[in-house]
Amino acid sequence: NRPSALAALLAMLADGLTVRMIYAFQSPAAIAAAVARLDAAVVVMAEEDFTPEVRAVLAEKAIAGIALGAMTAHAVPGFEQGAPRPDPTDAPQVEILTSGTTGPPKPFPIPHSVIAGFVQNQGMTMIEDPDEPPFLMSFPIGNISGVYSVAASLLRGKRVVLLDRFSVVAWRDFVVRYRPKAGGAPPAAVAMIVDADLPPQDLSSLKVFSTG
């Protein structure tokens, strides 16, 4: 969850491109194998993920590479252009991965139109209230909660606070600073918050908390 990754995803959605996610928390060999399976036109990853294993796959399959720094993006030297791929016949979509709790993670495509419908059906105003707290983005950008949260927040001009990954300390600091009325987190994070035994006054602004 870095600003450059957020900007890259938004640009690809705005351009109507199909995006296929791979897990970043894998060994270099596993990431390289995932890149080889997808055989996409371009790979967009953090700079440190362009390992020798990944570069070998890019060279073999003529795939272009774009490296993301904390606040930057640049073409990977030697991989500025890839071989053309046929245009996808399906409508543009974001292909996320299932959790893999019952077997290997499986790709799950979400058409752009479904994401747009989700945002429109929230009944949210498209003008952001400057007094409203920002959205705490601790979900990974590459999963379904992350994609929907990014789209819903930024399409209405809402400020976003990015966490690279969830921590109770960062979550508590956010609540104390911005005093939101509503919050949410996955069950594992809820357990971490409860176990931390935070002072009730730190959480007194919260009226609603959702999980799932």
SSE diagram, text form:
Layout: H1 3-14, E1 19-20, H2 28-38, E2 42-46, H3 52-61, E3 64-68, E4 73-75, E5 93-97, E6 107-111, H4 112-120, E7 135-137, H5 144-155, E8 160-162, H6 168-178, E9 182-184, H7 187-196, E10 208-210
Parallel strand pairs: 1-5, 2-3, 7-8, 9-10
Antiparallel strand pairs: 3-4, 5-6
Q: Which percent range describes the beta-strand content? A: 15-25%
Round the Cα radius of gyration to an integer and report it: 19 Å
Counting DSSP E segments of at least 2 residues, the number of strands comes to 10
Quaternary organisation of the protein chains: single chain
**Mean pLDDT over the residues:** 89
Described by the principal axes of the CA atoms, the overall outline is globular
Secondary-structure element series: HEHEHEEEEHEHEHEHE
Distance between the termini: 21 Å
Helicity level = 25-40%
Helices, by number, come to 7
| Strand order in space, largest sheet | 1-5-6
**Unreliable stretches, pLDDT < 50, 5 or more residues?**
none
Characterise this structure:
It is a single chain. The chain is α/β, with parallel strands linked by helices and 212 residues long. The protein is 35% helix and 17% strand. It contains seven helices and ten strands. The strands form four sheets. It has a three-stranded mixed beta sheet. The longest helix has 12 residues, at 3-14. The protein is globular and about 60 Å long.
Structure in a nutshell:
The protein is α/β, with parallel strands linked by helices and 212 residues long. Helices cover 35% and strands 17% of the residues.
